[in-house]
Amino acid sequence: MKNNANQWRVFKRLMSYLKNYKWLTALALTLLLLTTVVRSAIPLVASYFIDNFLTNMDQTAMMILVGYYLMYVLQTIIQYLGNLFFARVSYSIVRDIRRDAFANMEKLGMSYFDKTPAGSIVSRITNDTESISDMFSGILSSFISAIFIFTVTLLTMLRLNAVLTGWVALFLPFIFILVNIYRKKSVAVIAKTRSLLSDINSKLSESIEGIRIIQAFSQEERLKAEFEAINKEHVEYANRSMALDSLFLRPALSLLKLLAYAILMAYFGFRGMELGISAGLMYAFIQYVNRLFDPLIEVTQNFSVLQTSMVSAGRVFDLIDETAYEPSQENSGAEIEEGNIEFKNVSFSYDGKNQILDNISFKVNKGETIAFVGHTGSGKSSIINVFMRFYEFQSGQVLLDGVDIRNYSQEQLRKNIGLVLQDPFLYHGTVKSNIKMYQDISDEDVQAAAEFVDADQFIQKLPDKYDSPVAERGSSFSTGQRQLLAFARTVASQPKVLILDEATANIDSETEQIVQNSLAKMRKGRTTIAIAHRLSTIQDANCIYVLDKGRIIESGNHEELLALGGTYHKMYQLQAGMMEN
């Protein structure tokens, strides 16, 4: 019962998307109804011709015969137009659903993406919405057409011969019983099939993104085995679904239609002469039995696709309804003027159980640079995640220019905080579009930003300079060049606060000096928070904080921390020793 209620809710929600296309839908339905009327009239015309003109061909008979075939042509044209309009409605609705799903996905916080594979999200917005399209463009029109044809045909048969119609109607309950049994048995199988298809997409996406690591560690065979295991299970469930289709749909219903034919033939044979049933009526009834059963067979044949569409729609609506949004902002109208930052006893946990930051407090003013160092898992990146409002902290206070960070609008934060990551992400497009990031920035400002961070030197050597194409993730550029483009992107927006998350960790020693010079210019006059792996890159910081298990255990400038002879001193000696070796 719960499954039925859930499917009904999904169906009603899908139907709600029709309201934006009510006139186009109404036109498509009208054409379907006209198709049904013409289709139902054809056997009556044939019956009349057989009874009155089959052995007496004259001009009137020829006109009826021509009209009979013209009705087939008319039916084809109207049916084509009806299907065409339904297809337009279908693709428009799928566009709307994809838009809603993508729009909600863009608002979701990092916590959602931490636990949801990218391939699964892609599968919902592409494969699952395409399945919904199948329902609207083919199945829905098929269902409505079947209802029209079934109703009109049954009423016509009752008017022709109520007794004979009653005998044929005895088979209808069996059809509905078969469909109901199929629906109950197929839901779980189809849901599992769609879920496994999503797993295939996830594994495929993961393998493509990590292909270098896979090949570097010779993991090809393991990945092939894992992919094949999911692929094999998907085939098994697809075969189960096909087995259900083969048993409960066309074969079973075709058998019922043959039995109905048998009753018809027996009735005509035993009582046809007695009741004075004409050859035309016999022909019409045989045609109407076809028209009565064929739509039902077509509908049940498409029932598996409908079930798949409903399951797919449920998965898409789950994404649309997901509420794990990024932390909310009050938008008090406050504006960031200086960029002074203060953390007051901030504690944070990703899962609400394991403490990642424990009573963190520090302060940094405009023009100053502070740095965080520590071993992996010490909480360095978590400080950035909290400050960037990617995650909500549990206790304490984060102040920006003396104002609680929650009171700034999201737009104000993103405009005034520049983030440079360890692995810079470049979009498919051009060098110019990657620096602009579709902001209202002039071409002159783009070039000025590139010159400021020393990226203009290599850009000018490109074939099309700033209009040179950028491949996906910037794979045609070196790591250093990608980082310089990321610097230019950040500088172009003129942020007041600069966040450097191990921005030089992947840079080779030859490029490091260029990047360091660029960083020095970027930091000037800006509040800067740096997370550093190489201690040599943050020796000029105003204050360095050493983290361990989410707590600040040491703080001071480079010389002060060395003099302490503690954790920082050990880290520095270790790195210095590695450099010497």
Automatic annotation (TrEMBL):
Kindly give the InterPro entries that the UniProt entry links to this protein: AAA+_ATPase, ABC1_TM_dom, ABC1_TM_sf, ABC_transporter-like_ATP-bd, P-loop_NTPase, Type_1_exporter
Indicate yes or no for the key word Transmembrane helix: yes
GO MF terms here are: ABC-type oligopeptide transporter activity; ATP binding; ATP hydrolysis activity
Provide one Gene Ontology cellular component: plasma membrane
Pinpoint the ABC transporter domain residues: 341-574
Chief site of localization: membrane
Membrane topology classification: Multi-pass membrane protein
User: Entry's SUPFAM superfamilies?
Assistant: ABC transporter transmembrane region, P-loop containing nucleoside triphosphate hydrolases
Q: What span is annotated as the signal peptide, if there is one?
A: none
Q: Which keywords has UniProt assigned to this entry?
A: ATP-binding, Membrane, Nucleotide-binding, Transmembrane, Transmembrane helix, Transport
Could you tell me which CDD domains the record lists for this protein? ABC_6TM_TmrA_like, ABCC_Glucan_exporter_like
What's one Pfam family here?
ABC_tran
Cite the PROSITE patterns for this sequence.
Answer: ABC_TM1F, ABC_TRANSPORTER_2
| Domain ABC transmembrane type-1 as annotated: residue spans | 26-308
Subcellular compartments? Cell membrane
Transmembrane region(s)? 64-86, 139-158, 164-182, 247-269
Q: Which domain of life is it from?
A: Bacteria
Q: What is the protein name for this chain?
A: ATP-binding cassette, subfamily B
The protein's organism comes out as Streptococcus henryi
